[in-house]
Protein 1
Amino acid sequence: MANHASAEKRNRQRITRTAKNRAAKSALRSALKKARAATGAGATDVVKAASIALDRAATKGTIPAKRAARTKGRLAAALHKASQAQPKAETA
């Protein structure tokens, strides 16, 4: 229990910040799940949306910037690998 006004304020700020970060992380996890599922189909727009969500979360301090960069790199690598694995139709 907070005994000072400043401690009470910090507690209120903590509660607000935690709720905001929890919602942002949940949305980010959903975007990443969709992107990982779509990499097999080669859906670049879904991966791009996840990349934007990662950048937004890193900018706001919800996740560390290096984690966002690492995750974006892994998504891009998975998308590239999936696009290389798909057989290309030959044009004659």
Protein 2
Amino acid sequence: MDSTIDHLFQLQREAFIKEPCIPLAQRKLRLIQLKSQILQRKQDLREAMMKDFGKPIFEVDASELLVVLRSLDLAIKNLSRWNAGKTVDTDILLPATSSYIKPVPKGLVLIIAPWNYPFNLSFIPLISALAGGNRIFLKPSEFAPNTGKLIQEIAEEVFDPTEVVCVRGAADVGAYLCGKDFDHIFFTGSKRIGSLVMEAAAKNLSSVTLELGGKNPVIADRDCDLKSLAEKVLHTKYLNAGQTCIASDYLVLPRKDLDCFVECWRQTLRNWFPKEWKQERDYSAMIHEDHFQRMLNLVNRSIEQGASLSDPLDMDVAQRRIKPVLLLHSDFNHRSMEEEIFGPILPVIVYDKEVEELFEPMKKVDRPLAMYVFSHRNSFIQKITSHLRAGGISINNTLINYCESNLPFGGDKHSGHGSTLGYHGFRTFVHYLPVAKQKFWLNSLQFFYPPYKSPKSKLLKWIIKLYS
């Protein structure tokens, strides 16, 4: 595998040296061909994701297929505009000069995709990187092997290996790729692996985008519509069984609303699982046995520390499925608050009078990828958004800051670096090259040549006074 990677890397590097920027018309053609191939293979995608972790067809269509198709259409429509240079105003000290900013590809790009949304999180950054004219290595997750195989087949059908290469394999393949001299690395995954990617990239001074996760809080004000709150929060734990980097990770709620919220949560579950839930096929499984056991250990350890379940833990062990459940009486020192849960368990932490009571411990938690604020009061919203940081914020709903393709999506410190989606994804994969052009007959810097004597020095002091 190492020798194959080396050969393909050299192939792309030579292609980049020969043609540093893939022509715009070629990029647009590839995006159109990619869309056509994805539409042809949509049933294969549904079947692959069902095999990998029982992902229901509706979720495959909504959170994988639709998101990628929208991203493709946005890139195809705006490709020329995104790649157009932008003129800037001329400085008064540089007469007869024109300046502009030109987006150019970073070069060879490595994209390492995760298992939770393996199709979406492979092709969204790939579309952005291709729109910027880059040459791309893509590594899908080994934990979704059927989807990874399909991704590779689509890539090989659409692209020449000098444009896009898809390499499958385990963690050792990813580590080897990170050691190559890529111009940019785009990684989606855990904070632990993200730090290793940064360390490897630093050896080659490769720029890095990290899409990580975090303990995304839901912060509810008093007098919220608890039925609506329960539905919106539970949706993030139902979708992909909570295996989503922007899923609600814990809920902060007024103590007086706790009992009512729990009943609204239960009623929503009854509405969404009207029959025996274990027979429901529209609900995903944990990706593998280790992750399933991690959920159980997290719950058991938190209960030992004083938490309690809203309802008995309801599981389908054979299918690695856990019914969404609340972890009541949670505390910031419990096991459930040590790291991102990434599953259908939701710790609930209450406050008595004002939410500021919890600001100090909330600030000690790793900075989240998303934060969800529910309130009718602008003063409450302002208070939260002024004191607490996150990669993105949705107000009075969950997930919508990701669904808006005109907003940048990305983390902040512990939850990542850089951003993606739409134009902001395109920006991630290009270097904005500044170009200044002066008439050949003029040298506006001649004034600054030595010798530094009067009247030149007097004139410089006069110019500085203009800025005083």
